[in-house]
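Contributing new records

If you add data, match the layout below exactly. Sequence lines come first and carry their own label; structure lines follow with theirs. Keep one chain per record. Anything else will be rejected by the validation script.
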Amino acid sequence: MFFSCLIGLGSNLGDRELFLDQAIGCLREDKRILSIRKSSWRETKPIGGPLSQSPYLNGAALLQTSLAPHELLALLQELETQLGRTREERWGARTIDLDLLLHEQEVIDSPVLVVPHPRMAWRRFVLEPAAEIAGDMIHPTTGWTISRLLENLDRWPPYVAITGSIGVGKTKLAARLAEETGAELIAEQLDPPRLEAFYAEPSSQAWGMELEFLKQRTGLLSKETQLGRDPEQLVLSDFWYDQSPAFASVWLPEEKQEEFRELWQRRRHEVIPPKLIVLLECSADELHRRVRKRGRPFERGLSKQQLGRIAEAIARQAMAANEGPVLRLNNTDADTAFEEVLAAIEAMRVVDSE
């Protein structure tokens, strides 16, 4: 039995093209690989890691192989070692980098292997060569083809939505990223007295509150407003439009939830979709601690259980099929989360090394 597998290749040390060609040659010689189709090589600037790195040559290869996922990973790591790869720092320079991107429709999340590759869905330097040779291959967790993932980067203005439960740090991260990148920040406007009344008696206030948030989010992200802006201007929001039904599922009685989802679905076509959804997460205990620490009077009644339910509902919504690329991050370490999102933003923008 043979499997269709997609791998990514990159090099930014020494004779880059030679290293990439040697990697392809070694794979062709392996009797467990029936065929290989490779993309052209593309030069791109490095993403993340030391600032002094040289540009990369990147490409992709589509394999037909009898190797199971972990067996193929072992082969790729063996080839990296043979071609002089050393692992001294994250996102550092390397003679060769061989990543297992897709293995048929497998979804694996283990300490040694994550498939699909956790960052491929928004990396232009991965998607462009991959679309050249495997445009119809499906990314199993988004449900999108490689070509559609690339189109997602090309079709809409650069917009990233940051979502997560109350207290997870969405606004702080969005503001820090906006300051670093010069992005326009779109932040939800809170009405403390209104929220205090809502949290005190959600059973009678939830419907009106969720409708107000839906209306506000629609206005802030309307295509009429956003498509008239500079198409190169990065936009960040400290909310995600599609978090609306997740919050509604926590606060609204069951008999009103379907009605709300219908309203939300009718309005979705009016707003600009994000190129990337950033899902921030941390434990319910940590969420509760942060909410209490920031001391907003209208939040003092929020329980650990409510915060946890909101986090779970948003995660379910974000990870549902066909929602698009999601960068899922534990926000316990704010600096690490910042670096991850900053690298993702740069990876979406990259076209060449100039």
